[in-house]
Predict the 3D structure of the following.
Amino acid sequence: MARKFFIQTFGCQMNVYDGQRIAAMLKTYGFEQTDALSDADIIILNTCAVREKATNKVFSALGRVRRAKKPDALFGIVGCVAREAGSSAFKRIPDLNFVLGPQSYHKLPEILKNPDTKLLNIDLTGLEKFDELPQMEKSPAVAYIPIQEGCNHCCTYCIVPYTRGREVSRPFEDVVRDTIHAAKTGAIEICFLGQNVNGYKYTAPSGKTYRLSDLIQEAAKLSEIQRIRFTSSYPTEMTDDLIEMFKKEPKLLPFLNMPIQSGAPNVLTRMNRPYELNLYIDIVDKLKSARPDIQISSDFIVGFPGETEEAFEQTMAIAKKIKYINSYSFKYSPRPHTAAALMKDQIPESIKAERLAKLDSLLNEIQREFNESCIGKTMLCLCEGPDKTGKHLVYRTPYMQQCIVNNDSTNEQMANIVITDANKASLRGKVVKS
């Protein structure tokens, strides 16, 4: 009987990719994937540490694993919480078998060879994992392709430079190889990934320097690939060559996540995000000039240390001006190893909660208005598969909206869908028969 593995992934799309590659690796060792903790011979929590709540979820889940797993099952954590906790994770959960950082999960076979040992590796140097891990035999319809790891911007609230390390771009030819493999094994959409994805910069031995725009052009040459996108972007890295791609490459979706975090200049300064609001607005204007139908999403942090009521209202104002169609907003959460955690003028939780509710209400209204504006339009959408009931199919529009259609056995991976109804969360539509 084949041994089985269970993996639970928390957090960002980079973690989703990491989880897929870990699964592919374990399958080469003869393991089968299971959704049942009690059946698993090895249990892996693939973790996120970007917010305190995310870290707490991981250790809460570890407690459940201890109670549900087979007595002899191996279990451990990989990813950002592993890097953050280090050896202290073994003290907190003594029967953990392994703790592997986000650059080290390719070391997992070592615990398979020596199950009676404790395995700790949180090294952040290099991109060794991309070379050592096997390719997936079959790609999902949406293939996530990491192009760089880490970040050099060092925002004062962000733990990523500590958990993922300094910025390193993968070799251009390696990314192209992975993109071609994904296209040949089932991918329809390519999503390039990085903590600072539009900061990608690789200089080949020939002396030629490649940027994200070059990767987009290479992916667009593949006939199998119909949609291209990338996440997550830093405003000052939105260079003219990349903006031009929205104008000339139709496969690049008219949708961009470009986090602003705050609309208050003094808060942005304290966050160590050194861009002026006018610069951010100018970039949005350039994008809309290049691609008039483009829409922007963002990330927001409310209640950052020292944020006054006036500063919060400036955030509300930028949200109204840009009209972000889909955004992620959070209360500021102090993280270890960050400068903001040491700032003295922390905002009370009650005020943070009040401001978040107010911002969420505005963002939800903007999202609802945009969704309703889509009624009557026909969009080429990508199928993600059936919903939980099996009665409907779930598609994604070019703006990454969820669109629900009746499951009438059409099951086309790409379909033109006329939007018939909308609410804040999703759209409904009908497949246009060809």
User: Anything to note?
Assistant: The mean pLDDT is 92. Residues 256-373 form a domain with the Transcription Regulator spoIIAA fold (CATH 3.30.750.200). The first strand starts at residue 4 and ends at 9. The two ends are 47 Å apart (CA to CA).
